[in-house]
Amino acid sequence: MSEPGALRTRLVLLGREVAKFGVVGGLGVLVNLLVFNLVRQTTELPMVRASMIATAVAIAFNYLGFRYFTYRDREQSGRTKEMSLFLLFSLVGMVIENGVLYAATYGLGWDGPLASNFFKFFGIGLGTLFRFWSYRTWVFRALPAKEAVQTAESFLERTEPAPPRQSRRRQPDHV
Questions:
Q1: Is there a contact between 48 and 101 (Cβ–Cβ < 8 Å)?
Q2: Is pLDDT of 42 > 90?
Q3: Domain coordinates in residue numbering, the chain
């Protein structure tokens, strides 16, 4: 494949990955904001605690979406390691997300419903940039090319072989 063709293929694949990440992430944002506002309206919890609960629910939702939709074609061995790394990077994203909300609420005194949702959403955006990079780099890693070929070959070896072909004898031209 030519260099421009290879680059184009990589860009198309990256575009698909970003789109799938966006679908799961977008639904995760909705889950996060819905739970955040539900907890805020039904409990007396402080804003950042309510936000952390909402973020934790969204993290669980997102893991399922990323593993079984966005990155379903990625390496699946070592599920414990994968989940541990996912939780680690998700917690860092949670700190980024809720750090923005904390700074706006307690540092700047902007704690009204509109301001809290704006800064919650802004924090989610910053956390998402970090999560996208870390998940694709460390958690849901692409199979190396050699392993991908071996996986495909092992799959082909497991299928039943086709029945043997009957050889066709060539008849002599003069009979």
A1: yes
A2: yes
A3: 9-143
The stretch 53-57 carries a mean pLDDT of: 96
Nearest C-alpha neighbor of 66 from the set 113, 33, 116, 26: 26
Tell me how far apart the alpha carbons of residues 157 and 98 are, in angstroms, rounded to a whole number: 50
Angle between helices 113-134 and 3-42 (to 10 degrees): 140
What residues have CB less than 8 Å from 97, skipping those under 6 apart?
A: 51, 55, 120, 123, 124, 126, 127
Name every residue whose Cβ is closer than 8 Å to that of residue 122 and which is 6 or more positions away in sequence: 100
0.70 exceeded by pTM: no
- Contact of 131 with 89, CB cutoff 8 Å: yes
Q: How confident is the model at residue 71 (pLDDT cuts 50, 70, 90)?
A: confident
